[in-house]
Amino acid sequence: MRFEIFRLNEAGGTAEDALIAEADAVRGIIDNAAATGERLYIRPVEAAGAAAAGASTF
Fold first, then answer.
1. DSSP-assigned beta bridge partners for residue 3
2. Closest by CA position to 41, among listed 49, 33, 50, 53
3. Rounded distance between C-alpha atoms, residue 24 and residue 8, angstroms
4. Edge-to-edge strands of the sheet including 39-44?
């Protein structure tokens, strides 16, 4: 399963970046965000992968 992970802006909570990650990588991303104080929004990616087109890494 894949997830789309958005890094949220500190001021307004709007999404700054998006990352598509496999389920086994999500825990590490969450742990890193918790250690650095980043705010994330995570949602499953549709089976067709339509959301993956505009994603980047952060």
1. 21, 44
2. 33
3. 22
4. 15-22, 2-8, 39-44
Long-range contacts of 48-51 (CB under 8 A, 24+ apart): 49/2, 51/4, 51/18, 51/20
How many residues does the structure list for the chain? 58
pTM, full prediction = 0.71
DSSP codes of every residue in 6-45: EEEPTTT--EEEEEEEEHHHHHHHHHHHHHHT-EEEEEEP
Residue pLDDT tens, the chain, 58 long: 999 999 998 888 888 889 999 999 999 999 999 999 999 999 999 876 444 555 555 5
pLDDT at position 14, please? 87
